[in-house]
Write a structure and sequence with these properties.
The chain is of the alpha+beta class and about 290 residues long. About 45% of the residues lie in helices and about 20% in strands. Keywords: DNA-binding, Transcription, Transcription regulation.
């Protein structure tokens, strides 16, 4: 398997329902020391073939090995890192669509249960490998095949729901304060939201809240709020015809120039350029 291989699949002209495969890939990891938390504007499913590592979302930390899949939900702050001595080899697939969200929930995959443990590793590995293989040629029939493979993968998860006992054995719940804080931010990011306000809402001091948040995700609450707003703005740029000024207001930036500067710094392109590209160009790796 290649040391690092990234394939991206963008399907603007075909979809099943409202679902769309955005990209896929495979990686044999090299232990990294500069791993940072992620916030994404799409779903990401990561299937681990071998090795060990951790996955952390706002509700728990999971210690995952071969056969595990973790799902990242749009707008969710997550952190994942391979083990230094036995790093992961994994496949990933990114996708979007409300219908897919419903399927995930029926398969008992949600932000509170983001991990699945496979009964048959070989079957899932073959499905993910097929997606990567087909992505090298994108004629009409191949695009249909990739879409169908996504549903084959989701079917596998739906038919073999992970038991609560299996998940409990690999997870450690994080502070309830952090869980409530993330929910509060997602509900109030459009307002003049401050870290002090979030801390008051969850009933702890600002200093203690900042300490807990940084311990969990290695970034400050201020940075998370800013990046959550920017990611939400990126989704609105691609899915609505609202003006950039209106989108800036919708996501809590009340200074247009500050918004455009922050957006350009984060994504490496202006909001206008991002919308014109018509693709989530922030996708570089899973």
């Amino acid at each position: 398997m290649a040391e690092r291989l990234l394939k991206e699949v963008y399907l603007p002209d075909i979809a099943l329902g409202d679902s769309r495969v955005l990209f896929c890939g495979v990686e044999q990891c090299i232990p990294r020391t500069d791993t940072l938390p992620h916030i994404r504007s799409h779903f990401l499913m990561v299937f681990i073939v071998s090795g060990k590592g951790i996955f952390r979302n706002p509700t728990a930390t999971y210690h995952l090995g071969a056969g595990a899949t973790f799902c990242v939900f749009p707008g969710e702050l997550v952190f994942y890192k391979e083990d230094a001595e036995d790093p992961w080899t994994y496949y990933w697939i990114g996708f979007s669509g409300g219908e897919v969200l419903q399927i995930l929930h029926r398969a008992s995959i949600s932000p509170h249960r983001p991990v699945h443990i496979a009964n048959d590793i070989r079957e899932l590995e073959a499905l993910y490998a097929s997606v990567v293989s087909y992505s090298t040629r994108l004629d009409f029939s191949v695009k249909l095949k990739i879409q169908s493979l996504l549903y084959d993968i989701l079917y596998h998860y739906a038919r073999s729901v992970a038991s609560p006992d299996a998940l409990a054995a690999i997870s450690t719940n994080c502070s309830q304060h952090i869980v409530c804080a993330v929910d509060y931010i997602k509900s109030h990011y459009q307002t003049e939201l401050s870290v002090a306000e979030v801390a008051r809402a969850v009933g702890i001091s600002r200093e203690y809240f900042c300490m807990l948040f940084k311990r969990q995700f290695s970034i400050s609450p201020v940075r998370y709020i800013r990046e959550y707003r920017l990611k939400t703005a990126s989704m609105l740029l691609l899915t609505t015809r609202d003006s950039i000024a209106v989108i800036a207001e919708k996501v809590g930036f009340h200074d247009y120039n500050y918004f455009t500067n922050q957006f350009t710094r984060h994504f490496g392109v202006s909001p206008t350029g991002y919308r014109k590209a018509g693709l989530d160009i922030s996708i570089k790796s899973p």
